[in-house]
Structure formats: C-alpha cells, structure tokens
C-alpha cells in the first residue's frame, strides 16, 4: 500500500517537474525572441546609421537648385569634365567638382559641350548645370554677320557695332595680317608687282560669326582669319590655282575673286566675269587694263572720298594717275583685293569658265543679268540694251 502511494507521489512529482521545465523553456524562448527583436532593431538602426555615414562619404555634395545669381562661365577648348567642374565649383555654380563629374558620366551628351561662354546661376544642381551647358541658347556670344564684298573698313565698322570695340582697335590690329594668322606665302605675285604685307583686304572671310564677348580686336580678327584659312583649305584654293592658272599666284586669284564679287550680282556669272578679267589682264588685249569703275570706287572709299555710281564718276577720277587702283589706265590687276569675296566668287576665280573669249561684261537690267562682248562694238550694243532696261548709263 505504502509502496503504491509512493509510486503515485513520484508520478505527480515527475509531472510537476516536467511542467516546470516546459514553462521554464517557454519563458526562456520568449525572452530569447524578445532579445532577438531588440538585437535586430539595434542592428537595423546601426546599419542605417552606417549607411548614412557611407552615403555621406561616397555621394558628392550637390545643391538642390534651382540657382540664384547669374554666373558667367567660360568653357575652354579641350577641357575635361573635371576641368569644367572645377571652374563651376570655383564660381559657386555647383557644390562640388565630383557632383558635376558624376552628372557628366550619367549623360552621354556631355561630350558635346562646346567651348565658349555660358550664362549659368550660382547654386545650381549639377545635372541642371550640365543641361545648361548643352543648351545652345545658354551660350553667351556676340553674333555678327559679314556679307560678301565688304571692304576691310566696312568690316571693321560692322564688327565695332556688334562688339562695341572701337574701329581704331581693329585698324591697329589689322596692320600685321601675318600675326593674325595669314600665311606670309599669300603675299606673292607672279606678275612682277609687289604685294602689300600690311593689307588685310581679302582675308576677312564673309560669314556669320559667334564671337567671345571677352575677345579683343586682335582675337576677333584671328577668329575670322582662321575661318578664311579653313575655307581655303576646304576649297583647295591654293593648290588648284597653282596647278591650273599658269603662273598666276593665289593672291592674284584672290584679287580676281574680289572683283568678281563686286561686279557680278548672280553667282552663275562669277566664273565668267573672272575669265574676262584674266583675259584682259593676261590675254591678247591691247592695254591689258581692266577698265573697271569698281576698282576706282574702292580707292575713293578707303581714302575717305566716298563711292559714286558709275554715271557720276568724273573723267579725272576715272583716270587719276595717283590712284593705284586706276584700272582704266594701269595694266594688269590692281595692288590688292577690293573687298572680301565669298565662296562663289572664290570658286569662280579658282576655276573660271573655259573657252570664253570675251573681254567685256555689263549688267543689262536691274536683276543683275550680265551680257558679254568680244569687241568694243559688242560692248556698246550691250550698253544700249542696259539703258533701255533702265540702267542709267546713257
């Protein structure tokens, strides 16, 4: 009996012990779970803190934008994204160089940034600053168009009006064309006449230019001469003239181009006018004189006397022995170009019309239509036609 009771008590004690252990394990599990949550929270918080710190190290400082005061920035030829970013940073346009470099890496168009001056703002977001540098409308330039046929004096006046640089500054800078980029070899002639190395006429290529607003007179003229050189290279003007014009130098061809530009209104006539000039100067023509009013007027212009319509030029002016551009009496080409010819005139002088045995030309109507003659009698008939069409020559 006692033995049975002891057995029962032992079973009850065992059951209590098992229950206690289960409760103990459950309690410990709850504590462990709670501690795990706390630990995860700490780890998460620490991770965010660490991420924030790392982000602060590896993400470049950048303004939020949109920017404030205007900043004028220059991008120079050959500059890298780092170079440009450094300029922007020093002028407080962007918050850091790295921010701009990162923006440039993320934009494939960044390689298209052109040299020049730009209007930006202080405190811009780097990506916005990059976008502005890629926007042609953000460029700060002085734009000027030089029409074909202007004299150097007219060109200086145009440039002065656009840049506000005094005409005198351009005149002074132009006294040494070689220093502006004109190759000295241009000033050679094959007709025994001497070329004036101080004459800029003919080298101021007509085009539309976007000039740096910070450029001085010499820098502006260097830009124009550089364009002249590029156009001559593209046309292959020098080698073509030297190969095909039979001893006529490129400078002489440049003079002819300037005459064709002055005399012909229509591009189709420029090779023909050029051929007539060559025929008279170097062909079988009595005096080898060009007999052109345009050259006389050029001299009147550059000496401050003013140009005149052909019907108003006096006999004394047409035959002035002191006028070096008097082509009515002096044989051959004048001393230099009488203006700055464009591409069509240059091509006409470089490759004049072949098999064109004419010695006279005249505009016979207000549209600029040219008529050509072999003899003085032919020319007189064409002159009468011009008069009938309202050209005041009779």
Provide the descriptors you would attach to this structure in a database record:
394 residues, mainly alpha, Dna Ligase, domain 1, two-stranded antiparallel sheet, two-stranded antiparallel ribbon, 49% helix, transmembrane, cell membrane, Endolytic murein transglycosylase
Topology:
Elements: H1 2-58, E1 70-75, H2 81-90, H3 97-105, E2 116-121, H4 126-133, E3 142-145, H5 152-163, H6 167-173, E4 208-211, H7 217-235, H8 237-244, H9 250-263, H10 270-282, H11 293-302, H12 315-318, H13 343-350, E5 360-363, E6 370-373, H14 376-388
Helix pairs in contact: 2-3, 3-4, 9-10, 9-13, 10-13
Give a short overview.
One of its GO terms (cellular component) is plasma membrane. The chain is mostly helical.
Please characterize this protein's 3D structure:
This protein has 394 residues and is mainly α. Among the domains are: 70-138, Endolytic murein transglycosylase (Dna Ligase, domain 1), CATH 3.30.1490; 141-262 and 335-349, no CATH class. It has helices spanning 2-58, 81-90, 97-105, 126-133, 152-163, 167-173, 217-235, 237-244, 250-263, 270-282, 293-302, 315-318, 343-350, 376-388, and strands at 70-75, 116-121, 142-145, 208-211, 360-363, 370-373. The strands form 3 sheets. It has a two-stranded antiparallel sheet. A two-stranded antiparallel sheet has the order 3-4. A two-stranded antiparallel sheet has the order 5-6. Strand 5 (360-363) and strand 6 (370-373) form a beta hairpin. Helix 9 packs across helix 13 and helix 10 (270-282) packs across helix 13 (343-350). The radius of gyration is 41 Å and the shape is elongated. It starts with a helix and ends in a 6-residue tail after the last helix. Its EC number is 4.2.2.29. One of its GO terms (cellular component) is plasma membrane. It is found in: Cell membrane. It is a single-pass membrane protein. The chain crosses the membrane at residues 30-51.
